[in-house]
Amino acid sequence: MYLFVRDGREYLLAPGETLESDLGILEVPEDVSPGDTVETHLGEAFEVRDLRGPDLFAHFERTGAPMMPRDIGLVMGHTGACEGDRVLDAGTGTGVLTAYLARAGASVVTYERNPEFAEVARSNVEIAGVPDRVEVRVGDVVDDLDDLDDLGTFDLLTLDTEDAPRIVSRARDLLVSGGYVAAYVPFVEGTRAVVEAAREADLDEIETYETLQREMDFDARGSRPSTAGVGHTGYLVFARI
């Protein structure tokens, strides 16, 4: 899949596909590559781009509210997720975090309770170009915690599920030495439960953050933070063994 861009308009297309729009019919060549320019039958030109992380967030099919790039960035930066890491993820949803981790070179086993959501996530992982690094399992990871021996231990647990405290309580059985837990929690009550579970499991470096981000507006009148946009998204709890 590539991104076809013209004057702020973006379309996600694969080689061989056809797009019909008010700009004409765009037939995507089989040998198209990023950096190429492809024209419609009316001569309207589109620039071909490779997909980057923010493009995935914008163009994935959504099954709910995905984790925002600012929160994903904190997870990636705080845990140091990188090539060769093994990740156990719970609460796949749209699969945005899973895709970011896999594109960084990690191998991800992710659990999603809803079979329809899991199928969408598999399709999104294909769009991200990392299906070989991701296994989407249907079910509740809590039910499988005693049966994950065949997978060995993980470098990172990423949790976006109401069961996060129960999984955190088993972190010492699931993680390698020095491994991280990263839990994304929408409400304060759930956040406190995760922190308490981490303390009871005797995890180290327990930290909790709310990520706030303000866009700046610059115009003829002056400069100030934007009055629009999303404020709170969720809380992030990190811990380490």
Short summary:
Helix 3 packs parallel to helix 4 (115-128).
Features:
single chain, Vcp-like ATPase, Chain A, domain 2, Rossmann fold, seven-stranded mixed beta sheet, 15 strands, 27% helix, globular
Report low-confidence residues grouped into runs of 5 or more: none
Summarize the helix and strand pattern as letters: EEEEEEHHEHEHEHEHHEHEEEE
User: How many structural domains does the protein architecture include?
Assistant: 2
Proportion of strand residues:
25-35%
Distance between the termini: 39 Å
Instruction: State the major sheet.
Output: 7 strands, mixed
Number of helices: 8
Number of strands: 15
Fraction of helical residues: 25-40%
Average pLDDT reading: 94
Give the overall shape: globular
Which architecture of the largest domain does the CATH hierarchy give at level 2? 3-Layer(aba) Sandwich
Content-based structural category:
alpha/beta
CATH T-level topology of the largest domain: Rossmann fold
Question: By CATH's scheme, which homologous superfamily of the largest domain applies?
Answer: Vaccinia Virus protein VP39
Strand order of the largest sheet: 9-8-7-10-11-15-12
CATH class of the largest domain: Alpha Beta
Oligomer: single chain
Please state the CA-atom Rg, rounded to the nearest Å: 20 Å
Summarize the structure in words:
The chain has 241 residues and is α/β, with parallel strands linked by helices. It has two domains: 2-50, Vcp-like ATPase, Chain A, domain 2; 55-240, Vaccinia Virus protein VP39 (Rossmann fold, 3-Layer(aba) Sandwich). Helix content is 27%, strand content 33%. It is built from eight helices and 15 strands. The protein has helices at 53-59, 69-79, 96-103, 115-128, 141-144, 164-168, 171-174, 188-200; strands spanning 2-6, 9-13, 18-21, 24-27, 37-39, 45-49, 86-90, 107-112, 134-138, 154-159, 175-185, 204-210, 216-219, 222-225, 235-240. The strands form four sheets. Strands 9-8-7-10-11-15-12 form a seven-stranded mixed beta sheet, sandwiched between helices. A four-stranded antiparallel beta sheet has the order 2-1-6-5, with no helix packed on it. The longest helix is centred in the middle third of the chain and has 14 residues, at 115-128. The protein is globular, with a radius of gyration of 20 Å.
